[in-house]
Specification:
Radius of gyration: 18 Å
Order of helices and strands: HHHHHHHHHHHHH
Shape: globular
Helix content: over 70%
Number of strands: 0
Strand content: under 5%
Distance between the termini: 41 Å
Largest sheet: none
Length: about 230
């Protein structure tokens, strides 16, 4: 089998299980967006041009609660700062794409990062694999957002558990990769920070943002200590 065919086959096969969960998450977003008085066109356009489930759902929630556009923009920016780290980590793996790497950068997010980084560690740079994975997720996200927005009057995401489909699946994909000490330190720090913030102020919309920004420093600290003792 040629390298290109293998990249296509592996990309689709490995993206499909998570794509199903992303589809459920997209349905939930579409339903909630229209119920929050977004038009189906604006809901789908947001999926096409933003392509970030967490940012889109937080935007819907904040605008529904009366938040200003400025506060939504700041929150969305802080929430997506992690993509800078993802991009830096994936840069070498997509570098062979040359000028097309700028297009591939649009697909940098949580799910493609997990699959892409795992692939690059095993087989080296493979921009085609990353393109297949990111493209699959993008297609499923946009289509499911459209379907969800059109069936908004007939569905309750929480009743059907659609809101939990993606987090549970992503956790199942992520946990096996938490093996090295820096990753374990980051995960444990995230748990304690999130629990502490929720205990201090339940339902705090800043919990995810603060946890995502602070927890990685535990992994960096541990990694630095390992290098100094090596």
């Amino acid at each position: 089998m040629s390298d290109k065919k293998k990249s296509w086959k592996d990309g689709i096969a490995e993206a499909l299980p998570l794509a199903i969960a992303i589809g459920a998450y997209g349905l939930s977003y579409g339903v909630l967006a229209v119920q929050a008085h977004f038009s189906w066109i604006s809901a789908v356009a947001m999926s096409m041009f933003v392509f970030s489930g967490s940012v889109q759902l937080i935007t819907v929630a904040m605008l529904t609660s009366g938040a200003s556009v400025g506060s939504v923009f700041v929150t969305a920016t802080l929430l997506n700062l992690r993509n800078l780290l993802y991009g830096a980590a994936l840069a070498e793996g997509i570098a062979p794409a040359k000028k097309w790497r700028w297009l591939l950068s649009f697909g940098v997010s949580d799910e493609p990062f997990v699959l892409g980084s795992s692939r690059f560690k095993k087989y080296g740079p493979d921009p085609l694999y990353f393109a297949v994975v990111a493209g699959t997720f993008y297609f499923v996200w946009v289509v499911s957002s459209l379907v969800g927005s059109l069936m908004s009057n007939q569905a309750d995401p929480q009743k059907w558990g659609l809101d939990l489909a993606f987090p549970v699946t992503f956790a199942a994909l992520l946990i096996p990769g938490i093996r090295e000490k820096p990753a374990v330190a980051t995960a444990l720090a995230a748990v304690f920070i999130a629990l502490g913030l929720e205990a201090w102020q339940p339902g705090n919309e800043w919990t995810i943002i603060v946890t995502g920004m602070v927890a990685p420093f535990a992994g960096l600290y541990w990694s630095r200590g390992d290098r100094q003792h090596a």
